Amino acid sequence: MSTGHSPRLGVTPPHPIGVSVERRDAVPKVTGAATFTADLAVPGMCHAQLLRSPYAHAMIRSIRTDRARAMPGVVAVVSAGDLADVDMLYGHAIRDHPIMAIDRVRFAGEPVAAVVATGLHEAAEALQAIEVDYEELPFVTDPMEAIREGAPVIHPTAHEMGNQRGFAEADVPRHPNVSSASRHAFGDVAAALDRADLVIENDYEYPMIYAYAMEPYVALASWGHRSLEIWTSTQHPFLIQEELARCFRLPLSAISVRVAYIGGGYGTKGYTKIEPLTAALALRARRPVRLALTVEESILTARSVPARIWARSAFSRDGVLLSREARFHMDGGAYAENSPRIAFRTTRRFAGPYRMEALDVQAWSIYTNTAPSSSYRGLGSRQGTFAGETQLDEAAERLGIDALDLRRINLLRPGERPWPGARPLDADLHADLEIVAERLGYGSPLPRDHGRAICLSSADGGAEPTSSALVRLHADGSVTVMCGSAEMGQGSSTVLAQIAAGELGTPLESVRLLNSDTSTTPYDRSTGASRTTTVMGLAIQRAAADIREQLVGWARDLEPEADVEAEPAGVRIGDRSVPWHEVVTRWFGAAGGEVVGRGYVRAEGVTAESPLFWEVGCLGVEVSVERETGRVRVERIVTLGDIGRAIHPQLAEQQDVGGAIMGMGPALHEELRYVDQSMVNGNLWDYRVPRTTDLPEIDAVLAERADGIGPYGAKGGGEAAVNPIGPAIGNAVRNAVGIRLRRLPLTAERVWTALRELESHGKAPTADESAEEGPGRDA
Amino acid sequence: MSHEISIELEVNRRPVQLVVAPNETLAQVLRDRLSLHGTKVSCDAQVCGTCTVLVDGRAVSSCTFLAADASGTRVTSVEGLAEPETGRLARVQRAFVERAAFQCGYCTAGFLTSATALLSENPNPTRAEVVEYLEGNICRCTGYEAIVAAVLDAADADGTPST
User: Which candidate in A179, A212, A236, A596 could, as Cys together with A526 as Cys, close a disulfide (CB 3.0–4.6 Å)?
Assistant: First the structure.
């Protein structure tokens, strides 16, 4: 791995910015001392187990719990009927999700009842004694079937909208199983199509997958007098606080959502999951309740959003992209969760970082009788980029233009707006592409059945710019940073501490960052969309500036006659340098005291324009295909993190390495499958994620051009590799052996079948007319 | 849990006597009875390697290893890897710190114990041997590269180069 391929621009930022210091969580994590939610216990704590529906769609005629209630160790048996005092529906986009099934179940695996007992074993035994009488209903688990005339309607009554929608809807007629419709369009597509010399149009499919954060969902709820404390493994404690406040009709201040170390998130620990249920069980049990799901239950809680995609791109004969169109049918599952927002994002992420005169993208999130979906790293971009970048390579073949040259012709320049009103591109993808091409050895000879490809992506990153931070400088000069960002392994506790240390000239060792806790750390919208370094980083910079400003004022209070000026680690009063903390103690006139700095970020100034930054991706792969088995092996990956400024280069590179390997899974083998009513491979025996033996040679490069709006020119990272790797692998397979598959994953079976077809008929079964022209230029 | 079983074992170099249920796992004993929460459980089915501990130096999945079968053995969990008196980190732990060979940290105990078993069996593994040995441990954050590099660093650190 290497860094610093591109020159660093601008002023040199203060130490320890740009230094790969030891992670703040390193020693706790290698000694086993780091506390995760599952490690917590409180006095009187009971354990909950859930009874789940075996049916995809059914009415609940009755639930009998008397036998279960009488069993040893049982503290409470709870179903929706026992929660009349609770507002049962939650959902930040659409309030359609009952805390437990009310009268009707909408997916196989939906919680119907729960047992709270003194031990897990007792709870599991009592679960067997609950009797539920179901009346089965017609069900639909396929999104295209779900929007046919006469399909079973999954939510017969309309629901209220949630308060964290953050997306615009298209005003179009829709099937009752459509939870949300989004459209993003500009220019005149019809005119572009009229003028086009080549129009490529095809169907694509991105699979339903599971992130497998290795710590399954777990929460521990404990009620006080009209107050609730809940520890949960979440990226979005403040959004959960809002939903809990609504469900239990309490003020925000009565609800403490506390976050310990998080055992992986990748978006799937965002938004509300099992927290209202755990809190409801604790309310009825009148005891603290711990609900710890298994991996199998976690898969049924939040799988990803798959997409059926139609896409069309129009080109002039010299390779100029004229227009792009796409329609995404996205299976959001039984409850909307974040799928409306994902559909909306998809419409902004499909186009890619290319110039065009017209665009028209539509996306629908669709209710089906399947497990609810959730965000998963790169949401919408992975699905959209797969269609868009595959189609670019198809076009390159038809036009007889090298796939990279086609991209060079159409890539946006730094400062160009992707569409009217959007933030100008804050990245140099032309330069990035050349770096990756060189390091991949693009165009140099390859062994037989090897192929290379490079793909790009762009996503509207950063989510909403709503964050706040408090920074406290103590009487000994040490610093406590209070911010709501959640450390889930991405390294935010290290990077944010570096920013605080750099801004105040304080040794990193004396900076402490508190864990996210809605009762102590101030509001932060969410940890996701690669926003933390940029948005929370700015909030901390502003809080540090607030400290400096206050201390300069305090120094003037102390010595009104002297010239007072801020220095990196204190103030200059006259000709003397006085460290910050000495100003603090002198101003209070006591041994103690502290100064509190506040930093806020909202949509104004550098954060006014949307998106906050373009999270771009540029990634190259080399694959080999084993003809006898159809097995695809990724041999090499070159990642490029165009992140403006690496506060911590080691962590920034690792985001791309981790993202690339994570993204290999759905490109090659990961796919959750439904047969009849149920998910059939929702467990880790059948659902294989990448392992050490899949590891290719990886070259991780960072491009630092200080072109982001964040601290020292930083912008978001973490999705740059995961977004383009799917189509990169698909295109590389095409270049290796001449088959074109438009559906991920490229399982050995699919590849083998396509190879046989190609050999026997000279044509791959899912290939378009271009397949006959054989492999692309880089084979 | 009709009958209970008395067991005696050594956990992280200290003697332990317990009465366990026949179906109680070693992971449950470590976490729930001995408050050694460094051992994490993920798949609970011997697929992911997260709960790996050393039993007489061999790497086992504690989520499916019965506590009763651990009687008479020496068990080492992640808490037992560092020098007991000084708290000085083991070489492999130091290498993980230097390489930042973890992100969320949930799988880390399992990787550290597996790597310890590997390095005691084979003090100078090749990269291919490290990759092969760690195939039973899943990590979702790091992409494995830093982990493999850290294990090779730990092997190198005793002065004999690995090939």
Answer: A236
Q: 4-43 in B: which are within 8 Å (CB) of A?
A: 31, 36-43
A263 and A127, same structural domain?
Answer: yes
Residue A583 and residue A615 share a domain:
no
Sheet containing A613-626: give its strands across. Answer: A450-461, A613-626, A631-642, A697-703
Residues in chain B: 163
- CB spacing of B89 vs A27 below 8 angstroms: yes
Collect all residues of chain B within an 8 Å Cβ-Cβ radius of residue A719.
none
Mutation site for B-interface testing, chosen from A29, A290, A683 by largest number of B Cβ within 10 Å: A29
Enumerate the residues of chain A whose CB falls inside 8 A of the CB of residue B109. Answer: 32
Supply the pTM of this predicted model. Answer: 0.96
Domain co-membership, A623 together with A694: yes
| Domain extent for A550 | 464-606
Domains of chain B with bracketed CATH: 5-80 (3.10.20.30), 91-156 (1.10.150.120)
pLDDT (tens place) for every residue of chain B, 163 residues total: 458 999 999 999 999 999 999 999 999 999 999 999 999 999 999 999 999 999 999 999 999 999 999 999 999 999 999 999 999 999 999 999 999 999 999 999 999 999 999 999 999 999 999 999 999 999 999 999 999 999 999 998 765 544 4
Please indicate whether, in this complex, the C-beta atoms of B146 and A654 are within 8 angstroms of each other: yes
Residues A468 and A597 in one domain: yes
- Is the CB of A26 less than 8 angstroms away from the CB of B89? no
Domain end call among A292, A314, A341? A292
Instruction: Single out the residue of A667, A635, A212 nearest to residue A441, CA to CA.
Output: A635
Best of A214, A636, A638, A719 to disrupt the B interface (most B CBs within 10 Å) is A214
DSSP letters of A250-314? --GGGEEEE--B-S--TTTT-S-SSHHHHHHHHHHHTS-EEEE--HHHHHTT-B---EEEEEEEE
Of A22, A214, A266, the CB nearest to B138: A214
Q: Within an 8 Å CB–CB cutoff, is residue B138 touching chain A? A: yes
Structure confidence by residue, pLDDT tens digits, A342-353 = 999 999 999 999
Q: Is residue A194 part of a domain?
A: no
Say whether both A573 and A617 belong to one domain: no
Give domain status of residue A15, yes or no: no
Number of domains in chain A: 3
Residue A38 lies in a domain: no
Contact B93 A654 (CB under 8 A): no
How far is it, in rounded angstroms, from Cα A10 to Cα A8?
7
Residue A368 belongs to a domain: no
pLDDT confidence of A169, banded at 50, 70, 90? Answer: confident
- Structure confidence by residue, pLDDT tens digits, A409-426: 999 999 999 999 999 999
Residue-wise pLDDT for A23-66, tens only, equals 999 999 999 999 999 999 999 999 999 999 999 999 999 999 99
For residues A659 and A718, is the Cβ–Cβ distance under 8 A? yes
Q: Which of B54, B56, B52, B26 is nearest to B111 (CA)?
A: B52
CATH of the domain at A539: 3.30.365.10
User: With contacts defined as CB-CB under 8 Å, which chain B residues touch A214?
Assistant: 40, 42, 48, 50, 104, 106-107, 138-140
Place of tokens 């290796």: A736
Q: Which of A263, A123, A470 is nearest to B139 (CA)?
A: A263
Q: Closest Cα of chain A to B21: distance in Å? A: 12
- Clarify whether residues A573 and A639 are in a common domain: no
